[in-house]
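writing this on my phone so excuse typos. first protein, seq and then structure
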Amino acid sequence: MDFLTGIHRVFYHAAMRFSRLLLPCLLLACTRAEDSSEVQGRVITAAQRIVVLGPSTSANLFAMAQGHRVVGVSDYCTVGEAADIARVGGLADPSLERILALHPDLVLAQGNIPLVEQLCAESEIPFHAFTTDTLAEWDDEIEWLGETLNAKQSADALREKMDLGLASFTPEPEEQPSVLLVIFRSTEEASKIMVAGDRGFLDELLQAAGGRNILQGSARDYFDLNEEKLLRLAPDLILEFNTSAAEENRKALDEKARTIWLRDFPSLPASKAARIYTLIGEDLLIPGPGMLETAEQIRLLLSAK
């Protein structure tokens, strides 16, 4: 499975998750006037030049029909409508010069980016950082954006779409296979396996779709899984995430993955039953509006024969 061109997004999001442990309580609660909000003691009135360091927040803004306000996005932004918008680096390497050159009236980020936060403080630019790891935190982010940008109607509509979409899944309670969510592995063998634990939106999407994360109780998000534990877990089904493949390659990817897993771990129930499938999509690892499509893809694969 060729994840190499897409795996940077995994580490990007994993770094954002880890940053939750380090993020100090620097942000004051926002209060909403009729058409303005307060961020770090500064009033935003209908911000029109927003720089966004975080692919999920960029996707949220465009899904809320607020993309016209965005003048800068991260290097990892996957929104098609943002293709011509200036890139300003990422979590690990933000370009302070590019950010300042865009004259933003609001900077939004995912996770802890001290350099950008300091820049905004010194330049008197309103700044707000999210740590969006779960569906509830996504909902909170959308609510905040709606209130801050005076776009409550579109925010509420997006939240309702997500809620209704996930609630529409009606999995059979007796059919809940144990699933291993593989975020990354080596291309030609089942080694260096990175998986998704039970902390975060991927686990929640799996549950909504009718699956059971075999790593339930791990109390972790992304982590490396060793061979011994994998053999003990013995998953019924394996789902591999691929953020760079084309849909037309799905069948070939599935066949190659089954061959690799059967060769390297022939005793696993998933290997024996050839229940190993590939999820495909740029936004699979992004907690944004695309989560609904990810859950639907999981639901279909859980029932695949």
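second protein below, same order as before
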Amino acid sequence: MSQEAPFHCRFITMNYIDAGPSWRAVPHTHPFWELVYIREGKQSVAFPDHAGLELTGGANEIFLYPPNCYHFEYNPASVPLHTVYIGFTTDALPAEAPCLVSDSTLRIHTLLRWLEEAAGSFFPRQTDLCYAITTMIVAAVKHFRDCAGEETAAPPFIERIRRYIRENPHLPHSTSSLARFVNLSRYHFIHLYKLHAGISPMRDVRRIRLELAARKLLTEKVSIREVAIQVGLPELSHFSRSFKKQFGISPSRFRRNAEGRSLRR
């Protein structure tokens, strides 16, 4: 089996956008590649130098801009927008037009979480680890982009379910209730969800709840117990175990360390 020649990536920066419905960025360029991952909401991007190209993406979709690409982003929706973006250099991607790809398997979502942890800590060979994870992210994006015409897009009901969970994390969600919400039998709902999302419905519910909890711990001055209740995990010990399993740190330590972390939103 033939193998492609290895490629090189260099991690430069990582940051976040938490924007309201009226947010609009100033037109700008970067001398490096930029990857923008939409965690919640929608984002539109205009590219004046590419024949008026404009792309709009939703949750778990990725914008990729080549170096020196003139663009500006804005929030086209009436709900908040939450994105994470990284800057990097690489010789793996051709400097073509910007594009939008889907992270239907949540592979890049996971890699970005790893990069967050590495970039926000200080330890020997930290830079090497950030470069390695960035290389994995670029390889995954390259695969998704190259195979975009061959892969089947996730059906709309998956994002509908995710939006419903984000807006109602406190409800007692189950596979049966979620299947009814999208008018599918429980069997077909579970099968289709795992097929297209790469994760079971209830694991996705837990992921979304814990990500909402992490955001609340960083941005809201309420108790950890209240956060747990708000995101639908009212048993505090279970919430704490699940949070630590997801993020590798307890909720209380996560909150204490928030001010000192370079990952602060």
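The chain has two domains: 9-146, 156-260. thats all i got for now
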